[in-house]
Fold this protein.
Amino acid sequence: MRRSNRLSSEVGTASLEFIVAGVLLLVPLVYLVVALSVIQSAALAVEGAARQAARVFVVAPTAEEGRASVETAVEFALADHGVDPSAVLVDITCAPHPDACHTRRGFVTVTVGVEVPLPLVPSALGGTFPVAVPVEARTTQQVSRFWGAG
């Protein structure tokens, strides 16, 4: 019995189809996992930085010392996650008195934001393609009701 030519002409094409389809599906999936892990790491870093910055600001004796402590806390928190601290934006607002942050039972809100560059995307594409994802976290801490009582 002879085999037909039609069956013998397709011998070996399944492995080629598997490799091509596998690469076309696997490469975008791996890139997506890497990109999401970089963004998640930055989100955790920014959230931790904002929380710690608000804590150190409300316990500082003066607003100037508090701002210096905030810078140090943000640098350490971002460095722990591998985020570049040079591109971070830190905003400190106070309520109910915007000029006097250290008032009893006042609220201090610290906002930390950073733009996370997407992995393997050249910065030359900045005008036509988004090359960074903005990540921001905001935390509010209350100043102690015993502030300045000592």
